[in-house]
Design goal:
The complex is a heterotrimer of chains A (394), B (356) and C (129). Chain A is an alpha/beta fold. Chain A has helices at 10-23, 35-43, 46-49, 63-66, 69-79, 102-107, 118-127, 144-157, 171-179, 193-199, 204-211, 222-238, 257-266, 296-299, 315-320, 343-346, 351-357, 380-393, and strands spanning 28-32, 54-58, 84-88, 112-114, 132-139, 162-169, 188-192, 215-218, 243-245, 267-274, 278-287. Chain A starts with 9 loop residues before the first helix and ends with a helix. Chain B has two domains: 58-170, 60s Ribosomal Protein L30, Chain: A (2-Layer Sandwich); 186-344, PurM-like C-terminal domain (Phosphoribosyl-aminoimidazole Synthetase, Chain A, domain 2). Chain B is built from eight helices and 15 strands. The chains are: A alpha/beta (394), B alpha+beta (356), C alpha+beta (129). Chains in contact: A-B, A-C, B-C. Strand 9 of chain B pairs antiparallel with strand 3 of chain C, so a sheet runs across the interface.
C-alpha cells in the first residue's frame, strides 16, 4: 500500500534506532497521546528497542478509554429503548458501563448496530423513518469533522428521527492538565498526526513555550514513530522546545480549514470529564444550541443517570501514564480482553489491551532481539514478576 | 428487555464497572477464538462428561473400528451471505468437512448433508447451492450418501443452515495430531492468508467494499497426500479456518506444550487483504481461511515438504514461516518487520472492526 | 489519532449535496466523503478516517521524508564505521539468516517479502471448475 508500506521498512527502522541510541546521552521521558500510536509502539515493540533511558509513557490517547462513564451509561439507557436503533463505532460496544455494555445489550435483543462512518447512521435514519436512530459520536478532533457533518447533513436533509450522543475530547487541554500536574514526569510529547491533520499545530506552540517541552507532530507507522522520537530526543539533547512536524506528508501548520469551519459551526467547546482522570475544563465539544434537536441527551431525558466507579481502580493512573498495566493486580488475571473490567482493556488501542495483545507480562518473556533478555524456559509467575518489577523500576 | 442479570459485587474487583458474569452465549462464542474454547471447556465439555473422550481437540476424531482407523468429523455452516465471491455455502460445506478429515491424514470416504431451511427460500437458490455441493463433492472425490432436510418458519433460521459430517480412512502410519509438535519442527504454510474472511466481509452488510478477492475454499486432500508422501511422520496438519492462523497456531502450541516462533516477512498476505485489514483495523493472522493448510514437520523434512506442496496447485506458494521451540510453551511469537519479537494472541471473540 | 489510512481517489461525484468519491486503498475500494478536500481530483491521495477524507497527501513531502530516511541510514552506517572505543553500540542486531533458510537448510532461498507474491492477489490457485 502506497504511503504505508514504505514506512515499515525494517532496515531503515534499525538504522533509526541506532541513531536514537547514538544521540541520546541522558534519560528522557516522553508521552504519546494517541491510541493509534500506542498500538503501533507496543505491537512493533518500538519502546523495547529504545535505549534504556528513553521512557515512553502511553498517554490518554484512546477516545474509547476516556469516554466518561456517564456517557456510556446514557448510551446504554438509550439503546435499551425499543424505539431506538443505536449506532456506534465498533470499539465502543464492549466498553463496560456501570452494570453492562452495548454488546451484552445487543445479545438481549437491543437494536445496536456497528457503523463504519457517521454517514452510515444517517442512511439508516433515512431508511427507517419510523424508528429513532441515535449515533454515539465519540472521538478526538480527528473524528469531529465527520461527526459534525452528520449533524449538518441531518439538518440539511430534514431528518427528524436522528440524534447524536456526543462525547468529544480535545488533546491540548489534556496535555496541559498533564504538564501542570505536580507529579508530571513528561518532558516531551509526540502529537497525534491525524488530530493535527485536522486542527494544525498552532495550539501546541504556546504549550511548548510555556512548559518548555518539545512537541513533535508524528505519524503512525513504525518509521514515523521512530523519526518522531528521534526528533524529540534531538531537541531534548539540544535544550530546544519547539513544535516540529514529522508527519509532513499529511499535516500543515494551519490544518484543514474547511474541516475546522464545519466543526465550529456544529460544535462549541465545553467542559468534559475524562474517564479515570476527572473533569478537565474546556476539553470537549458539545452541540451548539442551534443543533439542540439533534442532541440525544435532550431528546431522551438521560441527564440524571448516576454512575458508579470503584475508588480503587487504577485505570485512571494508566490513562495519566503514572502507572502501567503491569502495575495492576487485575491485569491478565481478573481483567483481560475477553473479560475486560475497564475501558483501557476493551479498546484495541487502549494501553492495557495493547500490552495484553503483545503478551507483555503474561508469561515467560519472549526472547527479544534487544540486549536485555530474560532466560528462556522460566515459569509464568517468574516472568510476570520480572516484567512487573522492570516496569516499576523504569 | 425486562431481564436484568444481577450485578457483580463491585468491591470484589479492583477496577471500575465490573461486568456481570457471562451466562448466555454471545456471538463471539462462535468465532473460533478464546471464547469458543471457553464455551467448550466450561459448558459443553463438562455437560458431556464421560460421554465424550478427553484429550486435545483435533479437526476430526480418529477411531479404531475393527482394525481400521476411521476419521469422523462434523461441521455446521452458517455463512452469510449464502453466496460470496469465490463460492457459496454448499461448496464450503463440502470442502470444510473434507479438509477436516484430510488434516488427520484421512482420505474422505463419504459425507452426510443436512439442511435446515427457512420457509420462503426460493427453489432456484436451493437448487444452485445443492449443485455446488455436487460439484464440490465430485472434485473432492467423495459422495453424499445420506442426508436430512428440515424446514423452519420465517425468522427461525437465516435462510439456510447446512451441516455436513464425514468419514474417512486413515491409511498408512500417518497420525498427525494437535499435540505432536516438537521443538525443532518447521512450521509450513501452504499459501497466502486472509482471502476467505476478507471475501465474506466485503459483501457483509454494513461493511461493503469493492475488492478483487475471492474465497480460497478448496479441497486439500491432494495437498495433504503430497505432504504425507514427503513426510510420512508429519507431526501436525491443521486448516486455519475461523480465528485464522493465529488461533490455529495457539491451539497447537497449547496442545503440544511447545512454543512457536514465526516470521512476519515469511507470511504471504495479498495486497488487497492487507488493505482491507488496515481499513478495518484487523490482523490478517486472525482472518479466516478455507483452503490453506499448516503443516508442522521435523526440521530436516522441511525442504522436501515445501517442494512437494509447491508441485500441486493448492500449494504453489507454500513456504516455511516459522519453527517450533522449547521456549515459552503454549505461546506463539512473531518477529515483526521492524525486527522486534511480540506475542501473537488468539482471537478473543467476534472481530469488531477497529475504528479508533 | 487513529485509523486514518492513505488511499487514491478513483472518481468524484455529488450525492445529497456532499462531494463523495471512491477511494482505492491498495486494491480495496470504498466510498468516502471528499467534502473536506475540495481541491482533490482522481489520482490524488488522501487520508481517510471513518469514511471522510481529512487531508490531502503531499506526495513531494512524502518523497522527501523517505529520501531523508534512507540517506540518514547511509550516514549512520558511515558514522558507525568510524565509531571509536567507549561509544555504545546500538542494541539491535542486523538481519540474521532468514528463518526459512535456516530451518530448511537452504541458504539460497530468500524469505519472501510481505508484499503480494505473483498471483497471490488474484483468484485462488488451481483451475476453477
Amino acid at each position: 500500500m502506497k504511503y504505508l508500506d514504505e514506512y515499515r521498512d525494517g532496515a531503515i527502522a534499525r538504522k533509526l534506532v541506532a541513531e536514537i541510541h547514538r544521540v541520546a546521552t541522558r534519560p528522557w521521558t516522553m508521552m504519546e497521546v494517541c491510541g493509534g500510536q500506542t498500538h503501533t509502539i507496543v505491537k512493533q515493540g518500538i519502546d523495547e528497542m529504545l535505549p534504556d533511558g528513553i521512557r515512553m509513557i502511553h498517554g490518554p490517547g484512546c477516545p474509547v478509554c476516556v469516554t466518561p462513564l456517564e456517557q456510556v451509561d446514557k448510551a446504554l439507557a438509550i439503546a435499551a429503548d425499543p424505539r431506538v436503533i443505536f449506532t456506534s463505532y465498533g470499539d465502543m460496544l464492549r466498553v463496560p458501563g456501570s452494570t453492562t455494555d452495548l454488546l451484552s445489550l445487543k445479545a438481549r435483543g437491543a437494536d445496536v448496530r456497528i457503523v463504519y462512518s457517521p454517514l452510515d447512521a444517517l442512511r439508516i435514519a433515512a431508511a427507517h423513518p419510523d424508528r429513532e436512530v441515535v449515533f454515539f459520536a465519540i472521538g478526538f478532533e480527528t473524528t469531529a469533522p465527520a461527526n459534525a457533518m452528520a449533524a449538518w447533513q441531518a439538518r440539511e436533509l430534514g431528518l427528524d428521527n436522528f440524534s447524536m450522543l456526543v462525547s468529544h475530547v480535545l488533546v491540548p487541554p489534556a496535555m496541559e492538565a498533564i504538564l501542570s500536574s505536580p507529579s508530571n514526569q513528561v518532558q516531551s510529547f509526540l502529537a497525534a498526526g491525524h488530530v493535527c491533520a485536522v486542527m494544525g499545530w498552532t495550539e501546541y506552540e504556546p504549550i511548548a513555550a510555556k512548559y518548555h517541552v518539545p512537541i513533535v507532530v508524528t505519524g503512525f507507522e513504525p518509521l514515523d514513530l521512530l523519526e518522531g522520537i528521534l526528533m524529540a530526543v534531538r531537541q531534548l539533547e539540544e535544550g530546544r522546545a519547539v513544535v516540529e512536524n514529522q508527519y509532513a506528508r499529511a499535516v500543515r501548520r494551519e490544518g484543514n480549514r474547511l474541516a475546522q469551519e464545519t466543526v465550529f459551526r456544529v460544535f462549541e467547546i465545553g467542559d468534559r470529564t475524562w474517564r479515570g482522570i476527572g473533569e478537565i475544563p474546556s476539553s470537549g465539544y458539545r452541540l451548539k444550541p442551534e443543533f439542540a434537536r439533534f442532541d440525544a441527551e435532550q431528546r431522551f431525558l438521560v441527564a440524571d443517570i448516576s454512575t458508579r466507579e470503584h475508588p480503587a481502580c487504577i485505570a485512571g493512573e494508566i490513562l495519566r501514564g503514572t502507572k502501567t498495566p503491569l502495575d495492576c493486580t487485575a491485569y491478565g488475571v481478573l481483567c483481560s480482553p475477553q473479560r475486560p473490567l475497564g475501558a483501557p482493556m476493551v479498546s484495541s488501542e487502549g494501553t492495557c489491551a495493547a500490552f495484553h495483545a503483545a503478551g507483555r507480562g503474561l508469561g515467560p518473556a519472549v526472547r527479544p532481539l534487544t540486549v536485555i533478555g530474560v532466560p528462556p524456559g522460566t515459569s509464568a509467575d517468574a516472568g510476570l514478576q520480572r516484567a512487573a518489577s522492570e516496569a516499576i523500576a523504569r | 428487555m425486562s431481564e436484568r442479570s444481577a450485578a457483580v459485587d463491585p468491591l470484589a474487583a479492583s477496577c471500575p464497572a465490573p461486568l456481570e458474569e457471562i451466562d448466555r452465549v454471545l456471538l463471539g462464542h462462535g468465532s473460533g477464538g478464546q471464547l469458543s474454547a471457553a464455551l467448550l471447556r466450561d459448558v459443553i465439555g463438562p455437560a458431556l462428561g464421560d460421554a465424550a473422550p478427553g484429550g486435545p481437540l483435533n479437526d476430526a476424531a480418529v477411531l479404531d473400528v475393527g482394525g481400521q482407523r476411521l476419521a469422523f468429523t462434523t461441521d455446521s455452516f452458517v455463512v452469510s451471505p449464502l453466496v460470496f465471491p469465490g463460492g457459496d455455502i454448499g461448496e464450503l460445506a463440502v470442502n470444510g468437512t473434507v479438509n477436516d478429515l484430510a488434516m488427520m491424514g484421512a482420505e474422505p470416504v463419504a459425507l452426510s448433508l443436512a439442511y435446515v431451511i427457512e420457509e420462503g427460500l426460493p427453489f432456484d437458490e436451493l437448487r444452485a447451492i445443492t449443485e455446488s455441493v455436487a460439484r464440490a463433492a465430485r472434485r473432492a472425490g467423495v459422495r453424499v450418501v445420506t442426508g436430512d432436510t428440515k424446514v423452519v418458519g420465517r425468522g427461525a433460521a437465516d435462510r439456510l443452515f447446512v451441516n455436513t459430517a464425514g468419514i474417512g480412512l486413515v491409511a498408512g502410519g500417518a497420525a498427525p495430531a494437535a499435540d505432536q509438535a516438537r521443538p525443532g519442527d518447521a512450521v509450513i504454510l501452504s499459501g497466502p492468508i486472509g482471502l476467505h474472511g476478507v471475501a465474506i466481509m466485503s459483501v457483509r452488510e454494513g461493511l461493503e467494499f469493492e475488492v478483487e478477492i475471492e474465497s480460497d475454499t478448496q479441497p486439500l486432500a491432494g495437498l495433504v497426500a503430497a505432504v504425507v508422501a514427503a513426510a510420512p511422520d508429519v507431526h501436525v496438519l491443521r486448516d486455519p479456518t475461523r480465528g485464522g492462523v493465529a488461533s490455529a497456531l495457539n491451539e497447537i502450541a497449547s496442545a503440544s506444550a511447545v512454543g512457536i516462533e514465526i516470521e512476519e516477512s515469511a507470511i504471504l498476505v495479498p495486497g488487497p487483504v492487507r488493505a482491507a485489514c488496515e481499513m478495518l483495523g484487523l490482523d490478517p493472522l486472525h482472518v479466516a481461511n478455507e483452503g490453506k493448510c499448516i503443516a508442522i514437520v521435523p526440521g530436516e523434512r522441511a525442504a522436501a515438504v515445501v517442494d512437494a506442496m509447491r508441485a500441486v496447485p493448492e500449494g504453489e506458494e507454500a513456504a516455511v514461516v516459522g519453527r517450533v521451540v522449547a521456549d515459552h510453551p503454549g505461546m506463539v511469537a512473531i518477529r515483526t518487520l521492524v525486527g522486534s519479537m511480540r506475542i501473537v494472541d488468539m482471537l478473543v471473540g467476534e472481530q469488531l472492526p477497529r475504528i479508533c | 489519532m487513529c485509523l486514518g489510512i492513505p488511499g487514491k481517489v478513483v472518481d468524484v461525484r455529488d450525492e445529497d449535496g456532499l462531494r463523495m468519491g471512491r477511494v482505492d486503498f491498495g486494491g480495496v475500494r470504498k466510498e468516502a466523503c471528499l467534502s473536506y478536500v475540495p481541491e482533490v481530483v482522481p489520482g490524488d491521495y488522501v487520508i481517510v478516517h471513518v469514511g471522510f477524507a481529512i487531508s490531502h497527501v503531499d506526495e513531494e513531502e512524502a518523497l522527501r521524508t523517505l529520501e531523508l530516511l534512507s540517506q540518514m541510514g547511509d550516514l549512520v552506517q558511515q558514522e558507525l564505521a568510524t565509531m571509536g572505543p567507549g561509544m555504545t553500540a546500538p542494541a539491535v542486531v542486523d538481519d540474521p539468516m532468514p528463518l526459512g533458510a535456516a530451518v530448511a537448510g537452504r541458504v539460497d532461498e530468500a524469505v519472501p517479502r510481505h508484499q503480494a507474491a505473483p498471483g497471490a492477489s488474484a483468484l485462488r490457485p488451481g483451475a476453477r471448475a
